[in-house]
Design brief:
The chain has helices spanning about 15-30, 40-50, 70-75, 100-115, 130-135, and strands at about 5, 50-55, 60-70, 85-90, 120-125, 140-145, 160-170. With about 170 residues, the protein is an alpha+beta fold. It is globular. About 25% of the residues are buried. This is GCN5-related N-acetyltransferase.
């Protein structure tokens, strides 16, 4: 199957929200923390700033995620280090089991280097051993848990949350 990674565009917004809803509904069946309904303006801004991404295959959106180069409320003092942060990976259920996070990691390594970043970072809410194992198999180092101190302005699922932190250090490879 041929996969292409591209920036999302405004025509993708409804599909992005459909994938978020599917992911959130799945999270509700398994976990106490789940994604809230995201603000449409947030997604539209990410699209305009070329920070919302998609994997496409045969004209279908396979997977979406967002990136940023700044995440101080979650990464605190480590935010000063040059990193690309990956958020909200949501997969089209028709494409589950395709090892998409590994494809995102391979893309992110190039993207980080092109943008002079040393680290690829991700977080998840809670202590989910299944996700921890999966992300480490995809190349991330699990850095441990962090109780968030200041969640003002972050999506609701971060309120009073403990997060699992992950990173890939491109200089250690």
């Amino acid at each position: 199957m041929n996969f292409q990674i591209q920036n999302s565009n405004s025509y993708d917004t409804d599909e992005i929200f459909r994938l978020y809803k599917i992911a959130t509904d799945f999270q509700k069946t398994r976990f106490t923390h789940h994604w809230p309904e995201f603000d449409r303006h947030l997604i539209e801004t990410e699209i305009l700033e070329n920070r919302q991404w998609k994997i496409v295959s045969e004209g279908k959106i396979v997977c979406v995620w967002a990136t940023t180069f700044d995440d101080p409320q979650i990464w605190e003092e480590r935010n000063e280090e040059p990193a690309v942060y990956i958020h909200r990976i949501a997969t089209n259920p028709d494409f589950r089991g395709q090892n998409l996070v590994s494809k995102i990691v391979e893309w992110a390594k190039i993207y980080a280097q092109e943008n002079q970043k040393q680290f690829i970072r991700m977080d998840t809410v809670g202590d989910n051993s299944g996700l921890i194992n999966y992300y480490t198999k995809c190349g991330f180092e699990f850095l441990g848990l962090l109780k968030l101190k200041n969640t003002e302005g972050l999506p609701a699922h971060y309120d009073n949350a403990t997060v699992s932190l992950f990173q890939i250090d491109l200089n250690s490879k």
